[in-house]
Design brief:
233 residues; alpha/beta; 6-stranded parallel sheet; 3-stranded parallel sheet; 7 helices; 15% strand; globular
Length: 233
Amino acid sequence: MLDIHSHILPKFDDGSASSEMTMQMLRSSAEQGVSTIVSTSHFYGYAEDPEHFLERRDGARHRIRSLCKGDEPEILYGAEVLYYPGISHSEEIPRLAIEGTSLILIELPFFPWTTGIFDELVAFQYNHRISVVLAHVERYQDIQKKAIYQELFEQPFYFQVNAEAFLTRRSRKLAMKLMDRGQLHFLGTDCHNVTDRAPNMAQAQKVIEKRMSPNDWQQLVAECDDRFHMHRL
C-alpha cells in the first residue's frame, strides 16, 4: 500500500521532530500495511530555492538511511510544493517531483482561488511533461467559494485525499463522493508526528470497510498503487 504524502524527515519542516520519531512513524506505517511511503517535505518557493532544499533533504535522507533496518516501508523522496504564480516557467521545480516518477505533489494556496491558478498548473504539466497531484483536496472545501471549488474537479489533475478525511462527517462525504466518481486518485496520511498527526491509514481502512465494504478498501488501495506505478520511470 502506498502513502503518497508524509512529513517524516527529522527536523526538516513542521513534521518529525527527531530521527527517533521518524523511525516510530515508519514502524507504525509498516504495521498498518504501508509498503511505500513518499516523503513530501514542505517546499516554499518564496523562502528557499530548489537546490538548497535538495541539499538539506539529502542530509536528512542520509541520517534516516543509517537507521533503517530493512523492514520499513520503501521510502521515496519528493516535496509538497506550495503553488506560486509563475511556477509553470520554473526549470527547477520539476526536480522536486517524486523520486523515480513523473508525479509532483502541489499544495494549493489557502486564500481565494482564481481560474488562473488552474491555468498555470495546466501549463506546468504541459511545459514539463509532469503530472500534478493536488494535495489534500478535502481541506479546501470550507475556504473556497463553491463554484470554483467544484471547478477544481473538472481540471486535468490527480487528486490526493488525506486518510483523516474519512474520520469526520463533512470531509468523509466528499472523500466517498470522489471514490464513487473515480476521482480519489491517491491516498496519503500527511503524517507529521506520532501524536495528533500520526500515521492513520488503518483508521481510514476501518471506516471504509464499515461504511462501504472490505472490497471497496482493497479496490481503492489497488487502484492508487497501480496508478502510481504507471508513473514510475
